[in-house]
Amino acid sequence: MTHIKITYANLATKSHYSTGLGVGTTTEIIKQAIEKNLYSLALTDRQTISGLLDFYNKGKQLKFPVILGSELFYFDGMNQLKKIIVLAKNQEGYINLC
């Protein structure tokens, strides 16, 4: 039986670093994505980048392409709290996240 790699990447995944929202450790998340034959996966923990280095290293170790990001909140011009997910396109983007 041939396994087909799904050309889908979840761009809003939370790990245990997003207290109460995460679906597991970065290792568990990547292993699940590999089992499901996903193309890639983005880690976007809420208001933190604490898990990104571990996520990147584990992805590299398992030869699984990962995307680094975060879910951030800000106040718009009308004093309304807004949410935005930011993803790093490259190393410069990762540095900007930090």
Low-confidence stretches: none
Beta-strand content estimate: 25-35%
Q: Estimate percent helicity.
A: 25-40%
Question: What order do the SSEs take from the amino end to the carboxyl end, as H and E?
Answer: EHEHEEH
Largest sheet: 4 strands, mixed
Q: What does the overall shape look like?
A: elongated
Task: Let me know the number of strands.
Answer: 4
Distance between the termini: 43 Å
Average pLDDT across residues? 91
Radius of gyration: 14 Å
Counted by DSSP, the helix tally is 3
Strand order, largest beta sheet: 1-2-3-4
Structural class: alpha/beta
Report on the structure:
The chain has helices at 26-35, 52-61, 91-97, and strands at 6-13, 38-43, 66-75, 81-87. With 98 residues, the protein is of the alpha/beta class. Strands 1-2-3-4 form a four-stranded mixed β-sheet. Strand 3 (66-75) and strand 4 (81-87) form a beta hairpin. It starts with 5 loop residues before the first strand and ends with a helix. The mean pLDDT is 91.
